[in-house]
Structures are given as C-alpha cells and as structure tokens.
C-alpha cells in the first residue's frame, strides 16, 4: 500500500508499506527519510470521510487499516521538539542514555546560564553603585566626569562666597 505523507516543511514522502502495516512500521520508514528519531514523529491521518485525526503514541501498534488508512491516503507529519522527547523519556525512566537530541538541549540550557551570569554581574554592579563604589575606568575620565567635577567645584566656591558675604 502506498501512502502520501506531507511533511510540515512542505516536502512530500511517498511511503510504500504492507497492507497490514502498523503505525510504528510507517513511522520507521518515514524516520529514515527525514533522518529523525521515530519518537519525534507525529502523524495525522485522514480517513475516508476526510476528517483528520492525530495518531497518539500509544496507537503505534495499531494497523493503518484500522485507522481508516487506504491506498494513496494522505497524511501529515509533524515533529516533537527534542526537549519534549527527552522529558517524556525521563518521566518514564528511560532517559539514561544521552542522545544527540539531548545534547542539543544541554547546549540550550548552557546558553541560558550564560545570560543568567550576565544578569548576576549587572546586579553586582547595581549593588556596588548603591554602596557608593564606582567602576574602575582604567585611568580614563569621561566628559560627564569632568562636568560633575566642575559642578562640585562651583558649588564649593559658591558656598565660600556666601560665607564671606555673611
């Protein structure tokens, strides 16, 4: 039996499976084409009334015929995010071996930690500023620093003049 699978990316896969093939067998055939794990594949089948139905993970052992799939049936293929697959495996106690998909999720979390570190450094600077400490400027003064210093000097001179007048 030949089925047409429309991938979310816009490509089509014509898969040839036996009349008594299961959902899992079709997913295995598709997985080799799209080069992804069977666990990441989500199928939506169209039955004879042309209504669409999501095939659940626990239905992988069902026969395609029992789902209303016939010759030249049209299906849709979506993908689960690798993090979701990892969490599902971990919750079922099967997430011991690190796969390539898990490594990508670790890289994502490390990237998030880098941002957290930068936020923490920013908070440290804020605390230091509140405590009256100034950042080191490597010996360079800015125009703003000069203006502040000039303003303080003028204020002191103004106070001295007021003392003389009174």
Topology:
Blueprint: E1 2-7, E2 12-16, H1 23-34, E3 41-46, E4 52-54, E5 73-79, H2 82-91, H3 100-130, H4 143-165
Parallel strand pairs: 1-5
Antiparallel strand pairs: 1-2, 3-4, 3-5
CATH architecture of the domain at 2-89: Roll
Shape: rod-shaped
Give start-end ranges of low-pLDDT stretches. 98-114, 135-139
How widely separated are the two ends? 107 Å
The biggest sheet amounts to: 5 strands, mixed
Question: Into which percent range does the helicity of residues fall?
Answer: 40-55%
- Secondary structure: number of strands: 5
* Strand order within the widest beta sheet: 2-1-5-3-4
Q: How many whole angstroms does the radius of gyration measure?
A: 33 Å
- Summarize model confidence as the mean pLDDT: 74
CATH superfamily of the domain at 2-89: Phosphatidylinositol 3-kinase Catalytic Subunit, Chain A, domain 1
Helix-strand pattern: EEHEEEHHH
Number of helices: 4
What is the CATH topology descriptor of the domain at 2-89?
Ubiquitin-like (UB roll)
The helix-and-strand class reads alpha+beta
Q: In CATH, what is the class of the domain at 2-89?
A: Alpha Beta
Q: Could you please describe the fold and organization of this structure?
A:
- By secondary structure, the protein is an alpha+beta fold.
- The termini are far apart.
- It is 46% helix and 16% strand.
- About 13% of the residues have low confidence.
- The longest helix has 31 residues.
- The chain has a domain of 88 residues: Phosphatidylinositol 3-kinase Catalytic Subunit, Chain A, domain 1 (Ubiquitin-like (UB roll), Roll), CATH 3.10.20.90.
- Strand 1 and strand 2 form a beta hairpin.
- The protein has 4 helices and 5 strands.
- It has a 5-stranded mixed sheet, with helices on one face.
- One of its GO terms (biological process) is proteasome-mediated ubiquitin-dependent protein catabolic process.
- GO terms for molecular function: polyubiquitin modification-dependent protein binding; proteasome binding; ubiquitin binding.
- This is Ubiquitin-like domain-containing protein.
């Amino acid at each position: 039996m030949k089925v047409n699978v429309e991938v979310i990316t816009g490509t089509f896969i014509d898969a040839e499976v036996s009349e008594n093939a299961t959902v899992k067998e079709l997913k295995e055939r598709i997985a080799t084409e799209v080069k992804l794990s069977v666990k990441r594949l989500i199928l939506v089948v169209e039955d004879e009334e042309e209504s669409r139905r999501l095939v659940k993970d626990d239905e992988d052992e069902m026969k395609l015929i029992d789902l209303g799939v016939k010759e030249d049936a049209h299906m849709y293929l979506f993908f689960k995010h690798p993090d979701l697959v990892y969490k599902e495996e971990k919750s079922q106690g099967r997430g011991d071996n690190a796969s390539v998909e898990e490594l990508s999720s670790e890289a994502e979390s490390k990237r998030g930690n880098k941002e957290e570190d930068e936020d923490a450094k920013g908070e440290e600077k804020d605390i230091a500023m509140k405590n009256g400490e100034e950042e080191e400027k490597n010996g360079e003064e800015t125009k703003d620093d000069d203006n502040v210093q000039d303003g303080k000097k003028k204020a002191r001179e103004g106070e001295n003049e007021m003392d003389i007048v009174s």
